[in-house]
Design a protein that fits this description.
It is built from 7 helices and 12 strands. The protein has 272 residues and is α+β, with helices and mostly antiparallel strands. The N and C termini lie far apart (45 Å).
Amino acid sequence: MPRFQIRPLRSLEEFRACERIQLDVWGNLAVGSELMTVTAKYGGAVIGALAGSKVVGFIYAFLAQRHGRLIHWSHMMAVEPRWRDRGLGFRMKLAHRKLALGQGIKSIGWTYDPLESRNAALNIRRLGGTVDEYIENCYGRFPSRIEKGLPSDRFVVDWRIGSARVARRLVNNQRAVAGFASLPRANETRGNAQGLLENCGLHLDLRAPRVAVEIPSNTDTLRAKDLRLALRWRLETRKIFESYFERGYRVADFVPPHLASGGRCFYVLARA
C-alpha cells in the first residue's frame, strides 16, 4: 500500500502528469503544463496527490473575482480511477484551503455536475459548500467521456473557507442531516422496468423552509444504460433547481446514498 502525499506541484514533469490524468479521466486536455507553470508561480494553485513519486490526482485553480470578491477559482480536480475512494479529493481540498487562507483568500469557487452524487457528497456534505447558482450547458457539448454529449449543466459552489460554518463542517461532516426523511419532495420518483430511477412528478411551487430533491445515486451507470433517461434527468432537475433558486432557495446540504437513506440520495434546499 503506497503512502500518499498531498502538496503543491512544482516541476514540469509533474504538470505533464496532470495532462495525462486529464486524458485518462475526461478524454481531452483542457489545461496544459505551460499554463499550470504560470498559474503556480503567480497566485493560483496546482496541488497534487502523489502515490510514492507518481502524481495520481490534482487540483488546478487560478485567481478570479466573483461578486466583487477576490477568490480562487478551482477549475479542475481529478483523481485517476484506480486511486479513487481513498479520500484524496478531500485531502487535496483541505490543502487548497490552507494555501488559499495563507494568501488572504476567503472563498473558493468551482462548478460541478449536479447529478454526480459522488461530487455532491464531497462538495456539499463533507466540505460545507453551498450553491445558489445554476448554469445551463456551462461548457457546451464538450467531448467528455463522462458527459456523453449531454448538456453540461453545472452548479456553482461557494466554499467560504474562512467561515465558522465550514470550519465546523470539516470536523463534523458525519452528522446526519436532521429530519430529511420528513421533508417535502420537489420530485416524486420510482424505479422503471430496467431498475433505473425516474421522475414521475415534479412540484415546483413548494414553500416549506426546506425541500428535498432526489437524484440518481449513480448517474454514470444511468448514462451508460439509458442516455435518453439521463437527458430527462438533466432537463427535469434543471427545471427544479432553477425554479427554487429563483425563489430564494439554495443548496444547503446533501444526503449521500448510505444506509440511513436506503441507498438513495437527496439535496436539501433551504430558503436563504
